Amino acid sequence: MTDTETATAPAVPTDRTAAPKPSSIKMTARDVNVFYGQTHAIKDVSIDVDLENVTAFIGPSGCGKSTFLRTLNRMNDTIAIAKVTGDITLDGEDVYAPEMDVVQLRARVGMVFQKPNPFPKSIFENVAYGPRIHGLAASKQALEQIVEQSLKRAGLWEEVKDRLSDSGTALSGGQQQRLCIARAIAVDPEVILMDEPCSALDPIATAKIEELIHALRGKYAIVIVTHNMQQAARVSQKTAFFHLGNLVEYGETSEIFTNPHEERTKDYITGRYG
Ligand SMILES: Nc1ncnc2c1ncn2[C@@H]1O[C@H](COP(=O)(O)OP(=O)(O)OP(=O)(O)O)[C@@H](O)[C@H]1O
Protein backbone atom coordinates (compact mmCIF):
# COMPACT_ATOMS: atom_id res chain seq x y z
CA MET A 1 0.00 0.00 0.00
CA THR A 2 1.44 3.41 -0.87
CA ASP A 3 1.16 6.56 1.21
CA THR A 4 -1.49 7.94 -1.09
CA GLU A 5 -3.67 4.87 -0.58
CA THR A 6 -3.67 5.10 3.18
CA ALA A 7 -6.78 6.58 4.68
CA THR A 8 -5.29 7.44 8.03
CA ALA A 9 -2.16 9.16 9.23
CA PRO A 10 0.84 6.93 9.96
CA ALA A 11 1.27 5.77 13.51
CA VAL A 12 3.99 7.59 15.42
CA PRO A 13 6.23 5.24 17.40
CA THR A 14 5.66 5.51 21.13
CA ASP A 15 9.16 4.49 22.24
CA ARG A 16 11.50 7.03 23.76
CA THR A 17 13.35 7.72 20.52
CA ALA A 18 10.25 9.46 19.17
CA ALA A 19 10.19 12.08 21.89
CA PRO A 20 11.81 15.39 21.00
CA LYS A 21 14.62 16.52 23.26
CA PRO A 22 15.30 20.07 24.31
CA SER A 23 17.65 21.23 21.62
CA SER A 24 20.12 23.83 20.55
CA ILE A 25 19.53 25.46 17.19
CA LYS A 26 22.16 24.51 14.64
CA MET A 27 20.87 26.21 11.51
CA THR A 28 18.34 28.92 10.87
CA ALA A 29 16.60 29.97 7.67
CA ARG A 30 14.75 33.27 7.45
CA ASP A 31 12.52 34.41 4.59
CA VAL A 32 14.21 32.11 2.11
CA ASN A 33 13.06 32.22 -1.50
CA VAL A 34 14.38 30.14 -4.37
CA PHE A 35 13.75 30.85 -8.05
CA TYR A 36 14.62 28.70 -11.03
CA GLY A 37 14.28 31.31 -13.77
CA GLN A 38 10.57 32.22 -13.62
CA THR A 39 9.66 29.32 -11.29
CA HIS A 40 9.25 30.45 -7.69
CA ALA A 41 10.10 27.14 -6.00
CA ILE A 42 10.46 28.23 -2.35
CA LYS A 43 8.41 31.04 -0.87
CA ASP A 44 9.42 32.92 2.29
CA VAL A 45 10.45 29.86 4.25
CA SER A 46 11.74 30.33 7.80
CA ILE A 47 12.77 27.39 9.95
CA ASP A 48 15.21 26.40 12.70
CA VAL A 49 17.10 23.10 12.50
CA ASP A 50 17.88 21.43 15.83
CA LEU A 51 21.03 19.58 16.75
CA GLU A 52 19.43 16.97 18.98
CA ASN A 53 16.33 16.19 16.92
CA VAL A 54 15.99 14.67 13.47
CA THR A 55 13.96 16.90 11.15
CA ALA A 56 11.90 15.42 8.31
CA PHE A 57 10.77 17.42 5.27
CA ILE A 58 7.59 15.99 3.79
CA GLY A 59 5.14 17.10 1.12
CA PRO A 60 3.82 16.21 -2.32
CA SER A 61 6.12 15.84 -5.31
CA GLY A 62 7.41 19.18 -6.58
CA CYS A 63 6.59 21.10 -3.37
CA GLY A 64 10.23 22.15 -2.98
CA LYS A 65 11.59 19.80 -0.30
CA SER A 66 14.83 19.01 -2.12
CA THR A 67 15.26 22.59 -3.30
CA PHE A 68 15.01 23.88 0.24
CA LEU A 69 17.30 21.15 1.58
CA ARG A 70 19.93 22.17 -0.98
CA THR A 71 19.83 25.80 0.18
CA LEU A 72 21.25 24.67 3.53
CA ASN A 73 24.67 23.80 2.08
CA ARG A 74 24.50 25.90 -1.08
CA MET A 75 24.13 22.93 -3.41
CA ASN A 76 21.82 25.16 -5.46
CA ASP A 77 24.94 27.18 -6.37
CA THR A 78 25.68 24.39 -8.84
CA ILE A 79 22.43 25.10 -10.77
CA ALA A 80 23.03 28.09 -13.04
CA ILE A 81 19.42 29.32 -13.12
CA ALA A 82 18.83 28.95 -9.36
CA LYS A 83 18.66 32.16 -7.31
CA VAL A 84 18.41 32.09 -3.52
CA THR A 85 17.38 35.07 -1.37
CA GLY A 86 16.96 35.36 2.40
CA ASP A 87 19.22 34.42 5.29
CA ILE A 88 20.62 31.05 6.28
CA THR A 89 22.97 30.62 9.22
CA LEU A 90 25.08 27.78 10.61
CA ASP A 91 25.94 28.40 14.27
CA GLY A 92 25.12 32.03 13.61
CA GLU A 93 27.44 32.31 10.59
CA ASP A 94 25.96 33.55 7.32
CA VAL A 95 26.06 30.57 4.95
CA TYR A 96 25.70 32.85 1.89
CA ALA A 97 28.35 35.37 2.94
CA PRO A 98 30.80 36.02 0.06
CA GLU A 99 33.71 34.99 2.29
CA MET A 100 32.13 31.61 3.13
CA ASP A 101 34.34 28.79 1.81
CA VAL A 102 31.80 26.59 0.04
CA VAL A 103 33.99 23.47 0.04
CA GLN A 104 34.41 23.83 3.79
CA LEU A 105 30.69 24.52 4.20
CA ARG A 106 29.78 21.29 2.38
CA ALA A 107 32.08 19.36 4.70
CA ARG A 108 30.38 20.95 7.71
CA VAL A 109 26.94 20.38 6.17
CA GLY A 110 27.30 17.03 4.42
CA MET A 111 24.83 15.50 2.02
CA VAL A 112 23.59 12.01 1.21
CA PHE A 113 21.67 11.61 -2.03
CA GLN A 114 18.75 9.52 -3.24
CA LYS A 115 20.93 7.24 -5.29
CA PRO A 116 24.07 5.98 -3.52
CA ASN A 117 27.00 7.57 -5.36
CA PRO A 118 30.30 6.08 -4.14
CA PHE A 119 33.41 7.07 -6.08
CA PRO A 120 34.71 4.33 -8.41
CA LYS A 121 37.52 3.72 -5.91
CA SER A 122 38.16 1.37 -3.02
CA ILE A 123 35.98 1.34 0.10
CA PHE A 124 38.93 2.77 2.03
CA GLU A 125 39.54 5.56 -0.48
CA ASN A 126 35.86 6.53 -0.54
CA VAL A 127 36.08 7.37 3.15
CA ALA A 128 39.71 8.57 3.24
CA TYR A 129 39.39 11.06 0.37
CA GLY A 130 37.57 13.81 2.30
CA PRO A 131 39.76 13.78 5.44
CA ARG A 132 42.84 13.77 3.19
CA ILE A 133 41.83 16.82 1.11
CA HIS A 134 40.65 18.66 4.22
CA GLY A 135 43.92 17.85 6.00
CA LEU A 136 42.21 16.13 8.91
CA ALA A 137 44.76 13.34 9.38
CA ALA A 138 48.36 14.00 10.39
CA SER A 139 49.58 10.50 9.59
CA LYS A 140 48.67 7.30 7.76
CA GLN A 141 47.61 5.76 11.08
CA ALA A 142 45.42 8.74 11.90
CA LEU A 143 43.75 8.42 8.50
CA GLU A 144 43.17 4.69 9.04
CA GLN A 145 41.59 5.51 12.37
CA ILE A 146 39.23 8.05 10.84
CA VAL A 147 38.22 5.54 8.16
CA GLU A 148 37.57 2.81 10.74
CA GLN A 149 35.63 5.08 13.08
CA SER A 150 33.53 6.51 10.24
CA LEU A 151 32.68 3.04 8.93
CA LYS A 152 31.80 1.96 12.47
CA ARG A 153 29.54 4.97 12.98
CA ALA A 154 27.87 4.23 9.65
CA GLY A 155 27.24 0.64 10.77
CA LEU A 156 29.30 -0.81 7.92
CA TRP A 157 32.64 -1.74 9.51
CA GLU A 158 31.84 -5.37 10.34
CA GLU A 159 30.71 -6.02 6.77
CA VAL A 160 33.73 -4.47 5.04
CA LYS A 161 36.70 -4.58 7.43
CA ASP A 162 38.28 -7.50 5.57
CA ARG A 163 37.87 -6.01 2.12
CA LEU A 164 38.67 -2.34 2.40
CA SER A 165 40.52 -2.42 -0.92
CA ASP A 166 37.48 -3.70 -2.85
CA SER A 167 35.66 -1.19 -5.00
CA GLY A 168 32.93 0.80 -3.25
CA THR A 169 30.72 0.30 -6.28
CA ALA A 170 30.81 -3.50 -5.76
CA LEU A 171 28.80 -3.22 -2.53
CA SER A 172 25.04 -3.74 -2.34
CA GLY A 173 22.83 -0.65 -2.68
CA GLY A 174 22.24 -0.45 1.07
CA GLN A 175 25.94 -0.89 1.83
CA GLN A 176 26.79 1.77 -0.76
CA GLN A 177 24.42 4.19 0.95
CA ARG A 178 26.03 3.48 4.35
CA LEU A 179 29.42 4.00 2.67
CA CYS A 180 28.20 7.41 1.47
CA ILE A 181 27.10 8.18 5.03
CA ALA A 182 30.56 7.09 6.29
CA ARG A 183 32.10 9.39 3.67
CA ALA A 184 30.03 12.30 4.98
CA ILE A 185 30.88 11.46 8.61
CA ALA A 186 34.62 11.20 7.86
CA VAL A 187 35.04 14.96 7.45
CA ASP A 188 33.53 15.58 10.87
CA PRO A 189 30.33 17.32 9.78
CA GLU A 190 27.98 19.24 12.03
CA VAL A 191 24.88 18.67 9.90
CA ILE A 192 23.93 15.78 7.60
CA LEU A 193 21.31 16.41 4.91
CA MET A 194 19.67 13.29 3.48
CA ASP A 195 17.64 13.59 0.29
CA GLU A 196 15.36 10.53 0.14
CA PRO A 197 18.26 8.27 1.19
CA CYS A 198 16.18 5.08 1.14
CA SER A 199 14.19 5.51 -2.03
CA ALA A 200 16.47 3.18 -4.01
CA LEU A 201 16.74 0.58 -1.21
CA ASP A 202 14.81 -2.54 -0.24
CA PRO A 203 12.99 -2.72 3.13
CA ILE A 204 15.88 -4.45 4.96
CA ALA A 205 18.47 -1.92 3.76
CA THR A 206 15.97 0.85 4.55
CA ALA A 207 15.55 -0.42 8.12
CA LYS A 208 19.34 -0.35 8.56
CA ILE A 209 19.54 3.28 7.43
CA GLU A 210 16.67 4.18 9.76
CA GLU A 211 18.46 2.50 12.69
CA LEU A 212 21.57 4.40 11.73
CA ILE A 213 19.68 7.70 11.77
CA HIS A 214 18.54 6.89 15.33
CA ALA A 215 22.13 6.11 16.34
CA LEU A 216 23.48 9.33 14.82
CA ARG A 217 20.82 11.53 16.38
CA GLY A 218 22.40 14.16 18.59
CA LYS A 219 25.90 13.65 17.17
CA TYR A 220 24.94 15.57 14.06
CA ALA A 221 21.95 17.70 13.19
CA ILE A 222 20.07 15.54 10.67
CA VAL A 223 17.54 16.65 8.08
CA ILE A 224 15.86 14.04 5.92
CA VAL A 225 13.62 14.54 2.90
CA THR A 226 11.22 11.66 2.51
CA HIS A 227 8.20 10.75 0.46
CA ASN A 228 7.37 8.06 2.93
CA MET A 229 5.29 9.37 5.81
CA GLN A 230 5.73 6.19 7.84
CA GLN A 231 9.47 6.77 7.57
CA ALA A 232 9.11 10.40 8.70
CA ALA A 233 7.08 9.20 11.68
CA ARG A 234 9.66 6.53 12.50
CA VAL A 235 12.89 8.52 12.23
CA SER A 236 12.11 12.15 13.05
CA GLN A 237 11.11 14.15 16.09
CA LYS A 238 10.37 17.33 14.09
CA THR A 239 8.48 17.46 10.80
CA ALA A 240 8.11 20.25 8.26
CA PHE A 241 5.27 19.97 5.75
CA PHE A 242 5.81 21.78 2.44
CA HIS A 243 3.16 22.50 -0.17
CA LEU A 244 3.61 24.47 -3.42
CA GLY A 245 6.85 26.01 -2.17
CA ASN A 246 5.38 27.11 1.17
CA LEU A 247 6.26 25.75 4.59
CA VAL A 248 2.72 25.05 5.75
CA GLU A 249 3.46 23.63 9.16
CA TYR A 250 6.50 22.77 11.26
CA GLY A 251 6.42 21.12 14.65
CA GLU A 252 6.88 17.99 16.66
CA THR A 253 6.39 14.92 14.50
CA SER A 254 3.84 13.40 16.90
CA GLU A 255 1.82 16.61 16.76
CA ILE A 256 2.00 16.94 12.96
CA PHE A 257 0.80 13.36 12.48
CA THR A 258 -1.86 13.23 15.20
CA ASN A 259 -3.07 16.78 15.57
CA PRO A 260 -2.07 18.93 12.59
CA HIS A 261 -3.17 22.53 12.83
CA GLU A 262 -3.50 23.19 9.11
CA GLU A 263 -6.13 21.67 6.86
CA ARG A 264 -3.58 21.08 4.06
CA THR A 265 -1.35 19.10 6.44
CA LYS A 266 -4.29 17.01 7.56
CA ASP A 267 -5.29 16.29 3.95
CA TYR A 268 -1.75 15.23 3.09
CA ILE A 269 -1.07 12.99 6.06
CA THR A 270 -4.41 11.24 5.72
CA GLY A 271 -3.65 10.55 2.07
CA ARG A 272 -6.27 12.81 0.54
CA TYR A 273 -3.70 14.05 -1.94
CA GLY A 274 -0.22 13.00 -2.66
N1 LIG B 1 17.21 22.20 -11.61
C1 LIG B 1 15.99 22.72 -11.72
N2 LIG B 1 15.70 23.55 -12.73
C2 LIG B 1 14.46 24.10 -12.86
N3 LIG B 1 13.43 23.84 -12.02
C3 LIG B 1 13.66 23.00 -11.01
C4 LIG B 1 14.94 22.39 -10.78
N4 LIG B 1 14.86 21.59 -9.70
C5 LIG B 1 13.60 21.70 -9.24
N5 LIG B 1 12.87 22.54 -10.03
C6 LIG B 1 11.46 22.91 -9.83
O1 LIG B 1 11.31 23.43 -8.51
C7 LIG B 1 10.11 22.92 -7.91
C8 LIG B 1 10.45 22.15 -6.64
O2 LIG B 1 11.17 20.97 -6.99
P1 LIG B 1 11.86 20.03 -5.91
O3 LIG B 1 12.60 18.98 -6.65
O4 LIG B 1 12.59 20.84 -4.94
O5 LIG B 1 10.58 19.41 -5.19
P2 LIG B 1 10.46 18.13 -4.28
O6 LIG B 1 9.39 18.44 -3.29
O7 LIG B 1 11.78 17.75 -3.75
O8 LIG B 1 9.93 17.06 -5.32
P3 LIG B 1 10.11 15.46 -5.35
O9 LIG B 1 9.46 14.98 -4.10
O10 LIG B 1 9.36 15.05 -6.57
O11 LIG B 1 11.58 15.18 -5.41
C9 LIG B 1 9.41 22.09 -8.97
O12 LIG B 1 8.50 22.92 -9.64
C10 LIG B 1 10.54 21.70 -9.89
O13 LIG B 1 10.09 21.49 -11.19
Fraction of residues in H or I helices: 25-40%
Beta fraction: 15-25%
Shape: globular
Span of the ends, CA to CA = 13 Å
Name the assembly state.
single chain
CATH topology of the domain at 3-7 and 42-118 and 189-269: Rossmann fold
How would you classify the helix and strand content by structural class?
Answer: alpha/beta
Bound compounds, each kind once, are: adenosine-5'-triphosphate
In order across it, which strands form the biggest sheet? 6-7-8-3-9-10
What is the gist of this entry?
With about 270 residues, the protein is α/β, with parallel strands linked by helices.
Q: In terms of topology, how is this protein built?
A:
Blueprint: E1 25-36, E2 39-50, E3 54-58, H1 65-71, E4 82-90, E5 93-94, H2 102-108, E6 109-112, H3 123-133, H4 140-153, H5 157-160, H6 173-186, E7 191-195, H7 203-216, E8 221-225, H8 229-235, E9 238-243, E10 246-252, H9 253-258, H10 263-269
Helix pairs in contact: 3-4, 3-6, 4-6, 6-7
The protein binds adenosine-5'-triphosphate (ATP).
Q: If you had to describe this structure to a student in words, what would you say it looks like?
A:
By secondary structure, the chain is an alpha/beta fold. It has a domain at 3-7 and 42-118 and 189-269: 3-Layer(aba) Sandwich (Rossmann fold), CATH 3.40.50. 33% of the residues lie in helices and 24% in strands. The protein has helices spanning 65-71, 102-108, 123-133, 140-153, 157-160, 173-186, 203-216, 229-235, 253-258, 263-269; strands at residues 25-36, 39-50, 54-58, 82-90, 93-94, 109-112, 191-195, 221-225, 238-243, 246-252. The strands form two sheets. Strands 6-7-8-3-9-10 form a six-stranded mixed β-sheet, with helices on both faces. Strands 2-1-4-5 form a four-stranded antiparallel β-sheet, covered by helices on one side. Strand 9 and strand 10 (246-252) form a beta hairpin. Helix 3 packs across helix 4, helix 3 (123-133) packs parallel to helix 6 (173-186) and helix 6 packs parallel to helix 7 (203-216). The longest helix has 14 residues, at 140-153. It is globular, with a radius of gyration of 18 Å. The structure holds adenosine-5'-triphosphate. Adenosine-5'-triphosphate binds at residues 36, 39, 41, 59, 61-67, 79, 227. GO terms for molecular function: ATP binding. This is Phosphate ABC transporter ATP-binding protein PstB. It comes from Stakelama saccharophila. Pfam families: ABC_tran (PF00005). InterPro entries: AAA+_ATPase, ABC_transporter-like_ATP-bd, ABC_transporter-like_CS, P-loop_NTPase, PstB-like.
